[in-house]
Amino acid sequence: MQPLDQFAAEKLLQLESQNLRRILVETHRSTNGTAKRSGRELISFACNDYLNLSGDSRVVRAAQKAIEQYGVGAGASRPVTGNHPLYQNLEKRLARLKSTEDACVFGSGYLANLGIIPSLVGAKDLIVADELSHACILAASKLSSAHLEVFRHNDIHHAAEILNERRAQHPHAMILTDGVFSMDGDLAPLNELSALAKDYESWLMTDDAHGVGVLGAGRGSTFSSGVQAEVPLQMGTLSKAIGSYGGYLCASTSVINLIRTRARTLIYSTGLPPAIVAASIAALEIIETHPELTARPLENAKLFTQFLGVPEAESCIVPLVLGDPEQTLRASESLEKEGYLVTAIRPPTVPTGTARLRFAFTAAHDPKDIRRLAEIVKQKILKG
Predict the structure, then answer these.
(1) pTM above threshold 0.90
(2) Which residues form the domain of 45?
(3) Residues 84 and 39 reside in one and the same domain
(4) Catalytic: 240?
(5) β pairing state of 343-345 and 247-251
(6) Which of these, 62, 205, 263, 342, could form a disulfide with 115 (CB 3.0-4.6 Å)?
(7) Where are the beta strands (DSSP E) in 285-328?
(8) pLDDT tens per residue, range 257-274
């Protein structure tokens, strides 16, 4: 067997030859939607802090007060002594926002999915998931040992075909999807998926990491159509529009009690620091009381697609698929020279042949900057 360092070095060379190696770049973010790299201030269209709440003075003060009162860390997992008094407040607020009976908070969105899915289904059960679901949904599905079937992106008919063929062979079934797809920016057809779940006696679960706080008056993709879709398992994160850190599941009381008892990523992980929980509570208060703020990121994304002359944005995320990783990296570098930070997304984050620029819009973006960005994209990338 080859030495470990040699193995790693060869793998890195292979990734570099395909323009797929990742390099971490030190970035100083500000609260106004800008970021500094190598001493240059850039207008950032690469951040998921959609409401710019991570630096909001009210959120920061809440975190500071929590540190003074409870200390820095939780000290243990939640079932031991890490369930500090702020947790109940946060979970009640999340349940209210999502119109469910209860909620359970995890250490991150990734940990939430890895804990929830294997707690509800096992080796004899069936999972039917959208092919573009977040990586942690697919990882959790494999971890559960359930039989996993993947349907074509947002293709209700394909999902129905799978369920029609496979459902009777399994005692339980789950349908899994993102609410807002993080790399494509489109929405899942939740009302149709809900109807499908009823027809085939399956449990529907959504990952609403990129919907909560910015769609449906801040309540997320389940509420984006104007009528609440019936989604019994609403998962999401605290790290995007809420501006903090962590993940959650909103569901019925009985489901949440089961999750608190069975989810290994909850039971065997230290609880979130009190400051993080307090910051999340303060951010949710702002989201609930300022609907005009929650609407702004999508308005800005729609403005960009209007200037660019492409189909109207459905969410805060607008992709520009270029295909080739090298071309996409060059496009990102070109925009950085013009003063804009836009991420180049490459495989395996997206399928081979679909490397893209991912534009993420926040409440802080200025329409003048959005217009100028669209003009540069048209002149330097689309025409080039």
Answers:
(1) yes
(2) 24-50+316-382
(3) no
(4) yes
(5) unpaired
(6) 263
(7) 317-323
(8) 999 999 999 999 999 999
